[in-house]
Every structure is written in structure tokens, then in C-alpha cells.
Amino acid sequence: MIWLTDKIEFPPYELTTDEGIIALGGDLSEERLVFAYQNGIFPWFSDDDPIVWYCPFDRMVLFPDEIKISKSMRKIIHKKEFTITENTVFKEVIYNCKSIERNDGLGTWITNDMEQAYINLHKIGVAKSIEVWQNNDLVGGLYGVEVNNIFCGESMFSKVSNASKLAFIHLVTNNNYKLIDCQVYNNHLASLGAKEIDRALFLSILKEK
Questions:
Q1: Is beta strand 21-25 parallel, antiparallel or unpaired with respect to 3-4?
Q2: Is the Cβ–Cβ distance between 22 and 3 less than 8 Å?
Q3: DSSP structure class, residue 8
Q4: pLDDT in tens, 158-191
Q5: Helix, strand, coil content of the chain in percent (nearest 5)
Q6: Other CB atoms closer than 10 Å to residue 39's CB: what's the count?
Q7: Tens digit of each residue's pLDDT (9 = 90 or more) over 116-146
Q8: Pairing of β 150-158 and β 179-183
Q9: CA 144, CA 124: separation in Å to the nearest integer?
Q10: What is the spatial distance between Cα 206 and Cα 42, in angstroms, rounded to a whole number?
Q11: Are 107 and 13 in contact (CB under 8 A)?
């Protein structure tokens, strides 16, 4: 396992472990995080653990023209019971992603340091949030990082049914991204049209100008 130094660099992709780990350690500075995302690498770790950097062999992605919007979701969108905004309350979105209870047990991986790191990225215009409102209450949303016209999704939350789906659909249909990076497989995003592709293909798309 390779440990990072103060130098902003990562090992060759060939050294990635079977679990998709490419390196440990380093920091969550804006410079390192931007460099990581530009190279298809993202951090994912728990409190009291070293920073773990991933670049999995199979990448969960959504090509925007392949999004699946069910009839029931189209009805919900048509009713206009929700208001959707972008980048208005980033801190509240990441806090909810960090704090909300999840059936799958995920969410706690957003440590305090991670939370602040992405707030810092938002301040420099790299991280973005989508917010879903109902009766002026924040009921859902998501956040992620923009790089080379690709949106690298990090986390989403729902306080009412379908709120995170609405945020995701809005992200895909109201922005001109060439790809949505969903990182690793999950059933929720698969139901919306996301699929796994080979890392080499993902990296080639990521590097396109």
C-alpha cells in the first residue's frame, strides 16, 4: 500500500488494489482534491482512519441521454409540488447528507474534515449542490464535484419520498454534462439508468477536453 507525501501526486493506476484503493494518507486540500478528481480518484474513509483514495476498476456512471424517468416520477415532476435550486445552501445539503439516517448504513463516511473540505471546494466554485424544497423546507438534495464537464456525485439525501431522485433528475436534465460519475454501484442509481463501465473507458472520457 502506497502512502502519499506532501507532494500532490498519486501512484500509477496499475498499483490499485483489488478493492480499488490506489493510495493512503495525504490531505484534503483543495489542490489535492481537484487533482484527484481530474484523475478519476476520490477519497472515502471513516473517522479515525487514514484518508483512503479509490479508483475502482468498474465505474458506475450515467450517460445523460440514458436516464430513466418512470411514469410515476414524471407525474411528480408535472405536479410541481417541489421547488429545485442549485448552489443556494451547499452547507445545509452536505450536513444533511452527513447526518441523515440511512437504511443502508452509509452516510457516516462524511467526516467533519470531509465536510469542511467540500465546503472549501464549493467556495472556489468546484463543488456544487442541488436542493429540493417543499413548502420552503429543504427535503432533499445532492452534492458533488465538477471536472472537465463531468459531474462527480458524492452523496444525496431524502427527507420525503423521491426527493433525491428529483435532485438527480434535475442535475442530469438541466445541465450539459457529458457524464455523471456515480463512483460505485448502487441499486438506486441503477434504477435511474446508471451502469458500470471499465475504468479505462471512464478515464478516457474524463481526460477529453
A1: parallel
A2: no
A3: S
A4: 999 999 999 999 999 999 999 999 999 989 899 9
A5: 35, 30, 40
A6: 18
A7: 999 999 999 999 999 999 999 999 999 999 9
A8: parallel
A9: 13
A10: 13
A11: no
Strands 58-62 and 195-198 come out as antiparallel
Q: Cell 483489488 belongs to which residue?
A: 18
**Cell for 11?**
501512484
Q: What is residue 127's three-state secondary structure?
A: strand
Residue 97 and residue 106: Cα distance in Å, rounded? 10
Determine if the pTM surpasses 0.85: yes
Nearest to 148 by CA among 118, 177, 168, 124: 177
Distance, in Å, from the CA atom of 62 to the CA atom of 183, rounded to the nearest integer, reads 10
Cell of 135: 413548502
CB 107 within 8 A of CB 94: no
One-letter identity of residue 171: L
Q: What one-letter code names the amino acid at 141?
A: G
Nearest-angstrom CA–CA distance, 20 and 17: 5
Strand (E) or helix (H) holding 123 = helix 112-123
DSSP 8-state secondary structure symbol assigned to residue 118: H
Q: Which helix (H) or strand (E) holds 153?
A: strand 150-158
